[in-house]
């Protein structure tokens, strides 16, 4: 999670929402990404999406069933869908996202009968640090 938090810090410094993601394959880091929708002018450029895409390129395959995804924030519905389609084995995330999350909040994507793959899910990893980074980012944006 340290690598994902570092990527999130880099995202914040670039003016992006501070979310970072890391994909490991058999314990080896194969992709690290930070949120970049503004920089890439791409609303799908969430950290998870970028990390999954990079991992698929590294492994030259679309199924990442022997991979783990570590992300600093609970994935949204789009990212949860990508996690399922990529067949990610395990999802580890930090802060919960009551407004936009889709794992333990909102649509609870992986609990839906139409979801074809459900990763093992571990939440609350470095939650305090990830949540504090997000709070600080949005406080600065609002000028509070």
TrEMBL record:
Q: Where does Zn(2+) bind?
A: 46, 76, 79
What EC numbers are recorded for this enzyme?
3.5.4.33
Enumerate the catalysed reactions: adenosine(34) in tRNA + H2O + H(+) = inosine(34) in tRNA + NH4(+)
Entry cofactors: Zn(2+)
Q: Which residues form the active site?
A: 48 (proton donor)
The reply on keyword tRNA processing is yes
Asked if Protein transport is a keyword of the record, the answer is no
One GO MF term on file is: tRNA-specific adenosine-34 deaminase activity
Q: What class of enzyme is it?
A: hydrolase
Protein name per the record: tRNA-specific adenosine deaminase
Species of provenance? Sphingomonas hengshuiensis
């Amino acid at each position: 999670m340290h690598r994902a938090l570092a990527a999130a810090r880099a995202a914040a410094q670039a003016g992006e929402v501070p979310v970072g993601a890391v994909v490991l394959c058999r314990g080896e880091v194969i992709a690290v990404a930070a949120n970049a929708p503004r920089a890439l002018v791409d609303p799908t450029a969430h950290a998870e999406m970028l990390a999954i895409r990079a991992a698929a390129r590294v492994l030259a395959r679309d199924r990442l069933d022997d991979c783990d995804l570590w992300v600093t924030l609970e994935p949204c519905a789009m990212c949860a869908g990508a996690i399922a389609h990529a067949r990610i084995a395990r999802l580890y995330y930090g802060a919960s996202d009551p407004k936009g999350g889709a794992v333990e909040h909102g649509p609870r994507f992986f609990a839906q009968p139409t979801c074809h793959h459900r990763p093992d899910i571990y939440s609350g990893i470095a939650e305090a640090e990830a949540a504090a980074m997000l709070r600080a980012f949005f406080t600065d944006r609002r000028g509070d």
